[in-house]
Amino acid sequence: MRDKIKQGKRWVVKVGSSLVTNNGRGLDREAIEDWAEQLVAMQKLGIQVVLVSSGAVAEGVARLELKSRPKQVQLQQAAAAVGQMGLIQAYESSFMRHGVHAAQILLSHDDLSDRTRYLNARSTLTTLLEMGVVPVVNENDTVATAELCLGDNDTLAALVANLINADVMLILTDQNGLFNADPRNNPQAELVGSASAIDNSLSMMAGKGTSLGRGGMMTKISAARLASRSGTDTLIANGREQKILSRLLEGEEIGTLLYTDSEPVTAKKQWLASQRSLKGSLVLDAGAVRVLQESGRSLLAVGVMSVKGKFTRGEVVSCVDEQGSEVARGLVNYGSDEIEKIRGRSSENIDQLLGYAGEAEIVHRDNLILND
Fold it and tell me: With contact defined as beta carbons under 8 Å apart, do 154 and 171 qualify?
C-alpha cells in the first residue's frame, strides 16, 4: 500500500499551525525554512506540490499581542489579515533561497461552490504547478463569514486535492497519526497504521484540536474521506519528525495511511462532491431513490415529491429520500418554481405544464453524484 504513495506525482501537503508557529509567539522561521527545503527536494524528484499552510491567524494573534485566538469573526479576520503578511513573506523568502517561486492562493467557500470560479481556481493551480511554482494555499479568512467559512485547513486541503486530482494528501500535525484511542488519556492506545478512508469506525477514535488551530483528528478523518472521492490517498503524520517528507517518499511506514477504495470520478462529479452549501433539496419517492441507486439513471420529474428552498437552473441541490437522508446531489435543469409545477408528472407533460419544451430530466445522470 505504501508503494502506491511512493509513485504519486502530485501531492497536497498541509502543515498545521503548531508546526509553523513558535508556541503561539509568531512564526517559527526555522521551521518554515525547513519545510521549504523539503518541498523543493520533492520537486527535484519530479513531484508537483501544493502547500496548504495554517498559521495566518496564529501569527496575527501574536503580532497584535492578543491573549488567545479570538472567537469573534471580525477579530479573526483582522488577525488573519495581519498574519497573512508575515506568513507569505516567510515562505516567499524561504523558497527563493532555493531558486523556486511561491504563489499565494487565498480561497473562500464561494470560490469552491461556484462552478466557474472552481474551474478558474483549478486552472490557475494546474498552471502554477506546470511552471514549477509552489502554490501556498490558505483560506481567505479576511472575507469568509462564520456561515460560509470552510472551517479548517484540513478540509481546504481535501478540496484542493479534489481540484488538482492529487495522488496523495499529506496532513502534517503534532501527533504521530491516528490512534485507536486518545493517547493523551490512554497509555495503551495504538497507532493505526492504515485503514480505509471510509471506515466508519475511524470517527470514534478522533480527539479535539489545540488552542492555536481549529482542526482535530476528526477533521482529518473527514478530510481524508472527502479526498478519497477523487481517488486521493491520505497520510496523517507527525511533522516534527526529521526529514519526514523524504522518509515517506522512501516508503517508511510513518503515521497513518487512509487509503481510497474507489477510482477517481470525473472532474464535474468531484466538484459536486465537494459542495458544502447547497441551494435546496428535492424529496424523492422510493421508486426514484431505487432508480438512482441501482440503475444510475437520471432524475425525472415523476419521482420528485416536493421541493425545498429557492434555487435557479444550474445550481446544486440535494436529493433526499422521504426520511430526509441525502441520496445524491446534482445540478438541476430547472429552477425551484418550475420543478414545483412539474413534480410528480411525466416528462412528456413538461411542455404543456411550463409552456415550453425543456430537458426531459430534472437532473441528468452526468450532473449527478450518489452518496457513498
Answer: yes
